[in-house]
Design brief:
alpha/beta; binds S-adenosylmethionine
């Protein structure tokens, strides 16, 4: 009885403020029923990664997006080959990837893990990066300018200090690929937001990807980064490579065979 009166008063007050409270049947089912929500190891790692790298929560990676990326890394964990991240910002992704690998092999120290970044933020957006869908921002303008997402190499080295064998390649993509030894890669995370460096990264890494290896392009399905999608689509269409488009924003390629 009292609870009913209280509820009615709350409803009235909220209505005066211009809002309405309604019961949504089964709302809880859709909010809290997923395995990733209950994955204590993942949440502990993510919380530590955010703290160690100083990455603002939600700034670059949603919980769901990062969880998905890690599932693709798990897929290749028993394969031979190197791992690369193009675009690392403060190091959150690499932190999560290296710890995931350490979960499988406690002696993992970052060997075979390569980070490529200007450490000066985004390069200059080009014509292909101009927003073409008004849902994403101002059409005709790039979502963010040169220098966004800048973090220094010393900051990232410190945040990833538990993995001393990581190799850092500081410089603009694609110049920082020059002179690298010929290596095979089993997993590549491309997260450079823009057309030019996404195109240059896929052109460099796809031919060096192992059979069964995976490339995750972080920005593929984000309307605010049209250049990343164009770059991947152009390359993949020309070679008839299918791209999985995820609801969390990534585009994923799994190399199926030597002819692909
Ligand atoms: C969105 S952030 C990466 C986020 C990161 N993967 C994470 O987990 O938090 C984009 C990164 O791409 C780098 N970047 C953008 N354009 C680049 C280019 N042309 N060459 C090298 N690095 C670039 C920036 O310096 C920045 O660190």
């Amino acid at each position: 009885m009292m609870a009913g009166i209280f509820r009615e008063w709350v409803r009235r007050i909220v209505r005066v403020a211009g809002f309405e409270i309604r019961r949504v049947p089964n709302a809880g089912r859709y909010l809290k029923n997923m395995m990733y929500e209950a994955d204590a190891r993942y949440h502990e790692l993510r919380a530590r990664g955010l703290a160690m790298t100083g990455t603002p929560d939600g700034k670059t990676k949603s919980i769901e997006k990062q969880y998905n990326t890690i599932q693709f890394l798990r897929l290749v964990q028993s394969m031979d080959g190197c791992i690369a991240e193009c675009g690392t910002f403060k190091g959150l992704g690499s932190f999560m990837f290296c710890h995931t690998l350490r979960d499988f092999d406690p002696s993992y120290d970052g060997r075979g893990f390569h980070i490529f970044d200007s450490f000066e933020g985004l390069s200059e957006p080009g014509l292909q990066d101009r927003i073409d869908d008004s849902r994403a921002g101002k059409p005709g303008e790039a979502f963010m300018g040169a220098g966004s997402f800048q973090a220094g190499i010393d900051h990232v080295r410190k945040a990833l200090g538990e993995f001393p064998a990581i190799e850092y390649h500081k410089g603009w993509i694609p110049q920082c690929f020059k002179g690298l030894p010929e290596l095979k890669y089993r997993f590549v995370h491309i997260d450079v937001d823009l057309y030019d460096p996404t195109r240059d990264s896929i052109e460099y890494f796809y031919p060096r990807l192992c059979e069964g290896g995976v490339i995750v392009c972080d920005d593929y399905a984000h309307l605010q980064w049209p250049g990343a999608r164009k770059a991947l689509d152009e390359y993949c269409d020309s070679k008839a490579i299918p791209v999985l488009c995820l609801t969390t924003g990534q585009g994923v390629i799994i190399k199926r065979g030597p002819l692909q």
